[in-house]
Specification:
The protein has helices spanning 2-8, 37-47, 84-96, 107-115, 155-158, 166-191, 209-218, 240-245, 247-253, and strands at residues 15-19, 26-30, 59-66, 76-83, 100-105, 125-130, 135-141, 144-151, 198-203, 222-225. It is an alpha/beta fold. The protein folds into two domains: 2-105, Nucleotidyltransferase, domain 5, CATH 3.30.420.380; 108-253, ATPase, nucleotide binding domain (Nucleotidyltransferase, domain 5, 2-Layer Sandwich). It has a five-stranded mixed sheet with strand order 8-7-6-9-10, with helices on both faces. Strands 2-4-3 form a three-stranded antiparallel sheet.
C-alpha cells in the first residue's frame, strides 16, 4: 500500500521521517551521573534492562537531556530505546519503497516540533492530542521538550457522552484535568518552568466544545482548540479533524535536527 501511494504521488527518492508507535519503543529517565559520552549508551542499556522484554544488547538507544529552566540544577537524562530488529525492518521497508529515510523519531518529538511553530507564545505551549484510545500531552518551550504524559482516556471514552450527558462526560474529563495539572506542577517544581501560555487541544473523532470549556474552567492556563491558523499554511478545504488525526505525521515532517 505504501509503495502504491509513493508511485501514485511521484514521491520516489523523497526524504522521509518515520514516527514509531508507542508499543515499539520505551522512554525512560536514567542516571548518568558524571559518565563520559562514550560510557553513557552502555550505561543506559544496563539501567533499562529490567524494563525491556528483549536482551539489552539488542537495544538501540539514544539519549537527550532536559535542563531546568533558568536554574543551576543538573539536567535530567532520558533514554529512548527500541529493539534493533524493529528499526532494521523499518529501514528495509522504506528502502524497498524507494524512499530516503533520514530519521526514525518518536511521537513526543513530533508534537514538540508542532509546539515550535507557535513562536509568538514566548512562554511555550502545551498540546493535548486526543486519539481514539488514548491521549498524549507534551509541554515545550524554546525547542525543549520538558514533559510528555500518556493518558488512557481517548475520544472513544468521550464521544458517547458528547450529546447532552454532561455529568458522564465531565467524570471522564476530571481524570484528564488532574493529570494535566499534575504535569504542570511537575514542570514547575522540577524544571522551574513558568506556566505555558496556552494548552492547545487537538480532538480527532469529533469536535466536542464541552471538552475545551471544561478544561479551560479548571486548568490554570488558557485552553483553546488546536489550529494551525497563523503558523502554517493549510488549504481551506482540509477538515481540521483530519489534520489532527495526522498531527504526528505533520510533526515528523517538521523535523529539523540533522543526523
Amino acid at each position: 500500500m505504501l509503495d502504491q501511494l509513493i508511485h501514485q504521488h511521484h514521491l520516489q527518492k523523497s526524504h522521509c521521517v518515520n514516527i514509531l508507535s508507542h508499543e515499539f519503543y520505551q522512554l525512560t529517565q536514567v542516571d548518568m551521573s558524571e559518565l563520559s559520552a562514550d560510557e553513557r549508551r552502555d550505561a543506559a542499556r544496563w539501567q533499562i534492562r529490567e524494563r525491556i522484554d528483549y536482551p539489552p544488547e539488542e537495544a538501540v538507544v539514544d539519549l537527550f537531556e532536559v535542563a531546568p529552566f533558568s536554574s543551576e540544577k543538573k539536567p535530567l537524562t532520558y533514554v529512548v530505546s527500541a529493539q534493533e530488529k524493529i528499526l532494521r525492518d523499518r529501514v528495509e521497508l522504506f528502502n524497498n519503497c524507494d524512499l530516503k529515510l533520514v530519521a526514525i523519531d518518536i511521537p513526543e518529538f513530533a508534537l514538540r516540533n508542532i509546539c515550535d511553530l507557535f513562536t509568538e507564545d514566548s512562554r511555550g505551549v502545551a498540546i493535548l492530542l486526543l486519539l481514539e484510545e488514548s491521549g498524549m500531552l507534551v509541554i515545550a518551550r524554546d525547542g525543549t521538550l520538558y514533559l510528555t504524559r500518556l493518558f488512557s482516556t481517548g475520544m472513544n471514552d468521550l464521544i458517547p457522552y458528547a450529546n447532552g450527558e454532561f455529568e458522564a462526560l465531565t467524570d471522564r474529563l476530571d481524570a484528564i484535568v488532574l493529570e494535566i495539572q499534575r504535569s504542570f506542577d511537575f514542570c514547575e517544581s522540577t524544571f522551574h518552568l513558568p506556566m505555558v501560555s496556552r494548552l492547545l487541544v487537538a480532538q480527532t473523532g469529533l469536535e466536542i466544545p464541552a471538552v475545551i470549556s471544561y478544561l479551560n474552567e479548571y486548568l490554570s492556563t488558557q485552553v483553546e482548540t488546536f489550529s494551525f491558523s497563523g503558523v502554517l499554511t493549510v488549504s481551506e478545504d482540509v477538515d481540521p479533524l483530519q489534520l489532527n488525526r495526522n498531527l504526528l505525521a505533520i510533526g515528523g515532517a517538521l523535523r529539523q535536527e540533522s543526523n
